[in-house]
């Protein structure tokens, strides 16, 4: 089990995990957990098709598997294997795609490919095509989406900078993609693709 607490980490360890792009990619391929900047806050993520990687992430966050996770991608095509488009009308899909790339996460019907590790107790999956250039590049290079949840320990504020991630989570992570967030001061808005209802204000 991974146990993370808010502690001061050595500067040597901090330097070793703030990696270059290729090292961050390698961490994903190895099934490890990374942190990266998004449109609003830093996120932590991993390969969405590796239950072992998702379990590491959930332990770091102390997050119940029942809640499910968000997927972020560089394009809608990367998300399609995880979505059951047959349950959505052309108009509903048009609403979704009109908001992307951008900081809007949509809850959509999940395909059979989606495991309980991703969807939790739901038959839906939360997905987003990011407009953050570094994350776009990361997902493009990795060839698939990555999971996304805010980079913070339970009860601590979401991290807005590389330094904050280092302080809170550096000792729990294998790699941090250093960079700037997109300037928003909140996590992404979440909407239901079938009803267009706003589930979380962004």
TrEMBL record:
GO molecular function, one term: L-threonylcarbamoyladenylate synthase
Enzyme Commission no: 2.7.7.87
Superkingdom to which the source organism belongs: Bacteria
Gene name of the record: tsaC_2
Signal peptide start and end residues: none
GO biological process: regulation of translational fidelity; tRNA threonylcarbamoyladenosine modification
Name this protein carries in UniProt: Threonylcarbamoyl-AMP synthase
Function (record text): Required for the formation of a threonylcarbamoyl group on adenosine at position 37 (t(6)A37) in tRNAs that read codons beginning with adenine. Catalyzes the conversion of L-threonine, HCO(3)(-)/CO(2) and ATP to give threonylcarbamoyl-AMP (TC-AMP) as the acyladenylate intermediate, with the release of diphosphate.
Annotated localization: Cytoplasm
Keywords per UniProt: ATP-binding, Cytoplasm, Nucleotide-binding, Nucleotidyltransferase, Transferase, tRNA processing
Reactions catalysed according to its record: L-threonine + hydrogencarbonate + ATP = L-threonylcarbamoyladenylate + diphosphate + H2O
PROSITE patterns: YRDC
Chief site of localization: cytoplasm
Source organism of the structure: Vibrio spartinae
An annotated GO cellular component: cytoplasm
Family: Belongs to the SUA5 family. TsaC subfamily.
